[in-house]
Amino acid sequence: MAANVKAPQEVTERAAAVLNGEVTLTVALAGQPNVGKSTVFNLLTGLSQHVGNWPGKTIEQKTGTYRHNGTTIHLVDLPGTYSLTANSPEEVIARNYIIQERPDVVVALVNAASLERNLYLVAELLALGARVVVGLNMVDVAADEGMHVEPPVLEAALGVPVVPMVAAKNQGIREMVETVDRLARGEIAYLPSVPEIRDDHRQVLAEIHALVADCVPEPYPSEWAALKLLEGDAEITAMMRDECLPPERWDQVHEILMAHEDAVLSVASGRYEWVGRMIRAAVTRPRAGQITLTERLDRWATHPLWGLGILAAILGLVFWLTFTVGAPLQDLLDTYVVGALTDAASAWLASAPAWLSGLVVDGVIGGAGTVITFLPILVIFFAVLAFLEDLGYMARAAYVMDRFMHLMGLHGKSFLPLFLGFGCSVPAVMGTRIIESHRARLLTILLAPLVPCAARMTVIVFVTPIFFGKAATLVAWGLIATTLAVLAVVGVLINKWVLKGERAAFIMELPLYHRPNARTIGIQVWQNSAAFLKKAGSLILIMSVIVWALSALPHGDIETSYLARIGQALSPIGALMGLDWKMLVALLTSFVAKENAIATMGILFGQGENGAGLDAALAGVLTPAAALAFLVVQMLFIPCVATVAVVKQETRSWGWTAFNVGLLLAISLVGGIVVYQLASAF
Amino acid sequence: MMEQLLRLVAEGGIHSYEDLAQHLLISQPLLEMMLEDLARLGYLRRVGDDCGERCLTCHSGGCVTMSPGQIWTLTSKGAQAAAHPGS
Questions:
Q1: Distance (Å, rounded) from C-alpha A417 to C-alpha A241?
Q2: Where are the domains of chain A?
Q3: What integer pLDDT is reported at residue A108 of this predicted model?
């Protein structure tokens, strides 16, 4: 796989010339960005630098000179690159310079603390035939991170000189200069270990090489050019096809390449295996501290059984915290802000027309104002979730949930969009774009609105404490579990009948657990709370005004209003669930946004008979069984209008959109009726 | 090694970096490089890259809160390479 830029005899002659002080050496400085190349370049060249641009490019070119043992060394700082695969202008410049200018030595500066990534570039330099000295920089950083890199072992494994350095402290620079000089003079045995292409494609490479070898222009190494063709390198492919090979020869090469499209995997695998061997030989990684803690915690957190238990417990804890801390704050806000605002507005509008007073007090404050009192609850909810995410737990939650869903027979690839649904159904539906299979994607879209979103959870958080007191946490937890169970059952049926058990896959990063950052959590809480307030101030406010208008028109009496007529038309269904028309209307208005259910209740039930608040008013009109039925319907009800819009957008079908709405409507109503009848019986 | 990685992923289910690195007897940084390379070559796709864009059109902002760590999935090209190694 190696291709020599300079023939051995040419190197020997050049070394002799160097010994005689007859030539100026050219040394190229290669490496990834931020590996310390500029530091080394500045230390060596001092004031004798020239800064310009690479020919035909806007990328900065730095060159300079230094003298060592009577020889002038021309130093060229190549652009920082991660590889030499022509993915960027920098990579093209770096590799073309090495091929065309043929520097005497290439110093590959590598970061000892991130050796894997840096050695990949070394692998490509060696494949190009460059004479390489590895500058093992930042050995102090690697040591601080507990990594133990052995330069002599790495040198033996690579077969090229390795010089440990801390360029920032001017350590190892002199040794590197000396090593470069000795290599150029031929005083160091240079026997590089070059990455090999995997066996299964070696013959293919030989065939391509045989076809192109006599057409590869100087100074390109022919073996390297053949390798790049096999890799699908766009620049070399275009050069060979358009400028070098006769058409019939190119057709032969092209035919081989087409038959071995995945040969790039063999080429890259050869390099990765090579890097892996070097790392295993020369690097010892830490086995203590943070990694061990993560591994220890993950034994529980990602366990198929205990992991689910922990997830359920954490979910319960989230609700317990929300109820315990958030609910009293919400009460205070309701009493001292919304209540006070209601009193002030009522007094201020006492002489105003009744409709204006009703609009402001009952419509705006009673609707949107009531929703805003949930801010403390949401802040706590978002803060706890952001804390868990920043801690590194949310990825584990996804991991164990996926296993659980496979047990239930659900499609694995559907998991992530469904998981996003805990935040909001809109990204959940849009997240199904990751699923290639149209059928699987469609079915996941249909399931996504069944995941309880944050807005639905807001309604749970409000209603459950009113009716279930200390058992509110358990009821909330049970409602979520029930919703997920319904989702799982529907998923099992879909998987069995439509997907035929197809199983797709994910790779998921499980980040190290770490101490959550208060600023990160704060930003997330702020973003989510601001989004909620924006929604309350726009969509919910508009809907509150509409609901109030429908509840006041045409005669100003709610019982004879348009809204009442709509609700009363649905009363037979409501009766099966113990819900009066007002609760049905609350459900209907949640179609615009789920929180509207509360805003509507705020408008329709007002502040209760004695101004005791919405919670007291609700407790007076609903039995616990009816409240439970309401919550079940609310959890399984048709998605909000934004979700329906993206379902239409993603399915591109009104038919499937209508089916989705109809399916959820049927499931929610059946669920509500069954729960009410069962709860009433006991 | 890269085809072996694709085959492991194609077996289905969810794989952590740690699981895969252990299977392949490589370090996690090397595995991460391979994942990025496979994505560049079109065999894998990073999931959720457009999350930020989605959040701009989403009222609840829930996408921000519920985004887990880095996630990759097989593309059809990756699935094909896993099913027919050595082509």
A1: 44
A2: 8-184, 199-284, 306-681
A3: 92
Q: Is A279 on the interface with B (CB under 8 A)?
A: yes
Per-domain boundaries in chain B = 2-83
Residue B66 to residue A394, Cβ atoms within 8 A: yes
Burial A209-223 (b: 16+ CB within 10 A, else e): bebbeebbeeebbbb
Interchain CB distance below 8 Å, B62 and A535: no
Q: How many residues does chain B have?
A: 87
Q: What is the mean pLDDT of residues B63-84?
A: 69
Which of A:8-67 have CB within 8 Å of B?
none
On whether the CB atoms of residues A549 and A589 are closer than 8 A, the answer is no
In this complex, which of B11, B30, B63 lies closest to A424 when CB atoms are compared? B63
| Residue A117 pLDDT exceeds 80 | yes
CATH of B2-83, one of 2.60.290, 1.10.10, 1.10.1760, 3.30.750: 1.10.10
At the topology level of CATH, where does A8-184 sit? Rossmann fold (3.40.50)
For A312-353, the pLDDT digits (tens) are: 888 778 777 776 787 788 778 877 887 788 888 888 888 888
Half-sphere exposure of A682 (CA within 13 A, CB side): 7
* Joined tokens for residue A568: 């009363």
Selection from A337-346, A360-369, A571-580, A627-636 with the highest mean pLDDT: A627-636
Question: Using one digit for the tens of pLDDT, what is the confidence trace for A8-28?
Answer: 555 566 656 655 665 688 999
Query: Using CB atoms within 10 A of its CB, is residue A598 exposed (0-12), middle (13-18) or buried (19+)?
Result: buried
Q: Check if A256 contacts B (Cβ < 8 Å).
A: no
The answer to whether ipTM exceeds 0.85 is: no
Q: Which of A106, A84, A104, A103 is nearest to A95 (CA)?
A: A84
Dihedral, CA of residue A241, residue A244, residue A246 and residue A252, to nearest 10: -50
What pTM does this model have? 0.62
List the single range of A93-102, A319-328, A577-586, A659-668 with lowest mean pLDDT. Answer: A319-328
Q: Which CATH number fits domain A199-284: 3.40.50.1820, 3.30.1120.10, 3.30.470.30, 1.10.287.1770?
A: 1.10.287.1770
**Cβ(A621)–Cβ(A605) under 8 Å?**
yes
Inform me whether the pLDDT recorded for B59 exceeds 80.
Answer: no
Element (DSSP H or E) covering residue A164: strand A162-164
Neighbour-count burial of A518, counting CB atoms closer than 10 A to its CB (0-12 exposed, 13-18 middle, 19+ buried): exposed
* Mean predicted confidence (pLDDT) in A613-642: 84
pLDDT in tens, A540-599: 777 777 877 777 777 767 677 787 788 788 888 888 888 888 888 888 878 777 777 887
Residue A308: its H or E element: helix A306-321
Name residues 37-66 of chain B within 8 A of A (Cβ).
37, 40-41, 43-45, 47-48, 51, 54-55, 57-66
Q: Does residue A536 contact residue A372 with C-beta atoms inside 8 Å?
A: yes
Interstrand relation of A71-77 and A60-68 (parallel, antiparallel or unpaired): antiparallel
Q: pLDDT by residue (tens digit) across A202-242?
A: 888 888 888 888 888 888 888 888 888 888 888 888 888 88
- Which has the minimum average pLDDT: A139-143, A177-181, A504-508, A654-658? A504-508
Which candidate, A583, A569, A439, A414, places its Cα nearest to that of A505?
Answer: A414
- Say if B71 is an interface residue toward chain A (CB within 8 Å): yes
Contact call for residues A640 and A425 (beta carbons, < 8 A) = yes
Q: Does B28 touch chain A (CB under 8 A)?
A: no
